[in-house]
Each structure stands twice: as C-alpha cells, then as structure tokens.
Amino acid sequence: LEQNFRRVEGIAGATIMGDGSVALILDVDALPRLAAREDTADERH
C-alpha cells in the first residue's frame, strides 16, 4: 500500500480490479476490535 495507508487500522491491503479501479481489502480480524473501540468512545460522549 501507499505509505499514507500502511497504518490505517482495518485495512489489510489493496488490489486493482479488472476495470482499473482500486479496491481496499479489509482486515476482518481487526473489525470487531475497532467496533468495540467505537462503542466505548460513544459511551464516553
């Protein structure tokens, strides 16, 4: 990945689709952890 996206949690990589567009590949192992963190942040506000 480009340097800007290397440390974005929840993104594992990227691929070029058949039509030339770029699609991000999600890190499915990180999604529950990120969702739990969002729930905790919502409770504090």
Automatic annotation (TrEMBL):
Q: Which Pfam families match?
A: CheW (PF01584)
| Identification of the protein by name | Chemotaxis protein CheA
Ranges for domain CheW-like:
2-31
- Please name the taxonomic classification of the source: Bacteria, Pseudomonadati, Pseudomonadota, Alphaproteobacteria, Rhodobacterales
One GO biological process term is: signal transduction
Mark the transmembrane ranges.
none
The source organism is: Aquicoccus porphyridii
InterPro entries in the cross-refs: CheW-like_dom_sf (IPR036061), CheW-lke_dom (IPR002545)
